Amino acid sequence: MLDTAQSLIKRAAKILDLDQETTQAILKANAEHKFDIELQSGKKFQAYRVQHNNKRGPYKGGIRFHPQVDYDEVRALATLMTMKTAAVSLPMGGGKGGIAVNPKELDKKELEELSRAFVKHLHPHIGPDKDVPAPDVNTNAQIIDWMVNEYENQTEDTSHASFTGKSIKNGGSLGRDAATGRGGVVALAEYLKLIGKNDQEFTMAVQGFGNVGSFFAKIAQSNHPKWKLVAVSDSSATIYEPAGLDAKELDEFKTKKGGKFADFPRGKKLAEDKLISLDVDILALAALENSVTDKNVKQVKANIVVELANGPINIPAQDYLTNQGVSILPDIIANSGGVIVSYLEWLQNKNGEHWKEEQVNKRLENCIQKAVKEMFEIAKNKKISLKEAAFVLALKRLTSS
Predict the structure, then answer these.
(1) Looking at domain 179-334, does it have CATH number 3.40.50.720?
(2) CB count, 10 Å around CB of 86?
(3) I want to staple 275 with a disulfide (CB 3.0 to 4.6 A). Which of 238, 242, 383, 390 is the partner?
C-alpha cells in the first residue's frame, strides 16, 4: 500500500512538474513513533504513530487495533491522510496510528489499559493543536473516550479536542457514524451530475457491508431511488438479487440478528469474491485494500467504481480500468466524509459548541461537492484520470499553502 500511495504522489508531482526535492519532502514523514506496550498481565504489543505532514494544520488520522498492523501500513495510511485532508481543503495534516493486537482476545479491563498506555507514551507529541487522532479499524467511541480521559490526566487539557470520534456525551459530533458512507454517496451524486447522468437509473453492488458500506447503501437508497442495490457482500458470501435488495433489511439482518450473508433468506448466493465480477453500473468497494488487483481486474464490469476503502485498487488495476474507460472515484475524496466530520467535531470542541446533525451533514456535503468539482475540472483540463486529478489537487494545496 505504501508503494501505491507514493507512486500516485510521484505521478501527480510529475504532472505538476514539481522538482525532486519538493516531491521527496512530501513523501517523507515528519515524525515516526514506534514503541512497545506491556500490560500488567505481561502481554506485549507493538504500537505506532506516524505523523506525516502538518503543513496545513495539526496531524489528523485514526488509530487501528488489528493483528496485521505494521510499520509500512501505518506509514502508507498516514501519507494518504495527508493527501485526503489537502484534497478536500481541510486545515489539517495527515497521521495514522495503530497497535498490532486482536482486541477480541482482550477483556474490557485489558483493552482500557492498552488504550491508556498508548496515550501515556504519546501524550507529549499529540494534542488539540499538534495531532488529533480518531477511531479506525476495531476502535470506537469507548476506546477514544478512555484515550481522551488519559490525555486529560496527563496534560490537564479539558477541551476534549485532543481526539475525535468520541461519544456524543463526551463531545462527539452528531453525524459521525454515517459520515464516510454519506460522503461516498455525495461524491458519487456530484460526479453523476457533472457528467449529466444524475437522472438516470443505475444498478449498484457494494463490497463489504460493515459500517461504511451499510451506511453508503442505506443513504444511497434513501436519497437516490434510481440507484438500485442488486448485490452486497461480506466475508461469508455475495448476495445477488437483480430485482433489488433493501439496504435497511440487510443492515438489520447483520446488526440485530448478527447474521452472515451466506444465511440471508433471499437472493442468489455467490462466493464473496464474485461480487466485483457482477454486471452492474456502479461498484462500491468498502472492504479492504487491494480488493481489485492486476490478477482480478479483468472481471470488473462496472463503469463507475467508488473507492470507499483506503487503497482498494492497486496501480496496475487502476491503469487497466482507466484505459478501459472506467471512472474511479478516488478514496482520498470518496471516503473523506469521516475525516471531514472529525474536523467538524474538533472545531465544535475548540469553540465549545455542539451542532445539529443537519448542520454537520450540510457542511460535509458542501466540502465534498466542492472537492469533486475541482477534481473533475483538473481531470478534464489536463486529460488525466480522476485518481490522478485528486492527487494533483492535493499536491497543489500542499505546495502552495
Answers:
(1) yes
(2) 29
(3) 238
Residue 43 grid coordinates: 502481554
Beginning with the edge strand found earlier in the chain, give each strand of the sheet holding 238-240 in spatial order: 268-270, 238-240, 227-233, 202-207, 282-285, 304-307, 327-329
pLDDT at 401 over 80: no
Q: Which residues pair with 205 in a beta bridge?
A: 231, 283
- Sorted by where each begins, the domain ranges of the chain are 31-161, 179-334
Mean pLDDT of 82-95: 97
> H/E/C letters for each residue in 326-338?
CEEECHHHHCCHH
Catalytic residue among 14, 44, 55, 96: 96
pLDDT value of residue 24 = 93
Domain spanning 31-161, CATH class: alpha beta
CB-based contact 306:284 (threshold 8 Å): yes
For the segment 83-108, the average pLDDT, to the nearest whole number, is: 97
Q: State mean pLDDT over 176-194.
A: 97
CA contacts within 13 A on the Cβ side of 66 = 17
State yes or no: is 96 an active-site residue: yes
**Mean pLDDT score, 8-15:** 94
pTM for the predicted model, two decimal places: 0.94
